[in-house]
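Can't paste images in this forum, so I'm doing it all in text. The chain is below; anyone willing to post the predicted structure tokens underneath?
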Amino acid sequence: MDNAGTKIFKAYRKAAETVAGLVLYQDKMQAWQMVVDFCRDERNRRAENKTARDTVLFWTYNNMAALAAENGADVSLAAEYYHNSLPFAPGERDRVTVYRKLARLYRQSGDLSSWLGAVGEVVRKEEDLAKISACLKEAEHCADAAAKKKYLQQAWALAECGASAESRDCQLVAEHWAGAAREARAVRKNRERQPAPRDRRI
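Text version of the structure:
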């Protein structure tokens, strides 16, 4: 039996091999659409690993967007596929890359309003990434447990980590949380091992 996520990656690789041998744009799109349909099939959604499914959907939509951009004067279809990929991005840096591609599309088409919107998203997300990095660095070098927790909470909020917290950014913050928890446990155990102070009263 295949491990969780294996079938979905196999479907992606098979589509990539198929697309490489195709000539017509429509046939290539159909091959990628089959991957999307496979990922979104309810039976596969229950059986497959969510992280693997999201990763495959992210790259498949990006491939479809690139194909649409290469083969059509109207950028709306390519932009739609790029936007479809965003909810499945593994991390904020991947979203920044998509918004950069969108910005290039809109600039080439002369859509100033959409271009400004995409550039604004790039700037905002780059700022968030810088803030996340700064919060993690502060947490690393902070001796006070309460202050460390505050920095990690800020990083968690900036990375927009929900209940699932499966993105790379959230996993990075979670690793720092785990490290902070280990430190706190070590400090607590060390205190418990310390002998109780003797009563020096005479």
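Residues 1-73 form one domain. DSSP finds nine helices and no strands in the chain.
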